[in-house]
């Protein structure tokens, strides 16, 4: 795999990396969703970025290949960044 999936949509409004869309350059997904999710009362990230997903700790997901996400794109939900793209393996 030479490319990382893009974050197609992020619906969480409390993550410091989400303002008018995800602004994290790369994110990690875990068993409870986006591990990059942070709620600290300030906004971060990059102005002009295409957010991507690299590492994935959700080992029972069909898109997890060697702890890397192999989906074409990932959708993140509103409740603390759950992965809406998850499919059971």
Features:
single chain, 89 residues, mainly beta, three-stranded mixed β-sheet, two-stranded parallel ribbon, 0% helix, globular
Helix/strand/pairing category: mainly beta
Mean pLDDT: 92
Shape: globular
Beta-strand portion reads 25-35%
Helix and strand string, N-terminal first? Answer: EEEEEEE
Strand order of the largest sheet: 3-2-4
Q: Nearest-angstrom radius of gyration?
A: 12 Å
Describe this structure in words.
With 89 residues, the protein is mostly beta strands. Helix content is 0%, strand content 28%. The chain has no helices and seven strands. It has strands spanning 6-10, 26-30, 33-34, 52-56, 64-65, 68-69, 73-76. The strands form three sheets. It has a three-stranded mixed sheet, with no helix packed on it. It has a two-stranded parallel sheet with strand order 1-7. Strand 2 (26-30) and strand 3 form a beta hairpin. It is globular.
Give the arrangement of secondary structure elements.
Blueprint: E1 6-10, E2 26-30, E3 33-34, E4 52-56, E5 64-65, E6 68-69, E7 73-76
Parallel strand pairs: 1-7, 2-4
Antiparallel strand pairs: 2-3, 5-6
Q: TL;DR of this structure?
A:
This protein is mainly β.
């Amino acid at each position: 795999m030479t490319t990382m999936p893009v974050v197609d949509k992020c619906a969480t409004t409390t993550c410091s990396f989400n303002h008018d869309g995800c602004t994290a350059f790369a994110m990690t997904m875990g068993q409870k969703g986006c591990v990059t999710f942070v709620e600290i009362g300030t906004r971060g990230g990059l102005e002009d970025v295409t957010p991507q997903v690299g590492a994935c700790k959700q080992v029972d997901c069909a898109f997890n290949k060697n702890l890397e996400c192999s989906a074409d794109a990932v959708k993140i939900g509103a409740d603390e960044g759950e992965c809406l793209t998850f499919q059971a393996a």
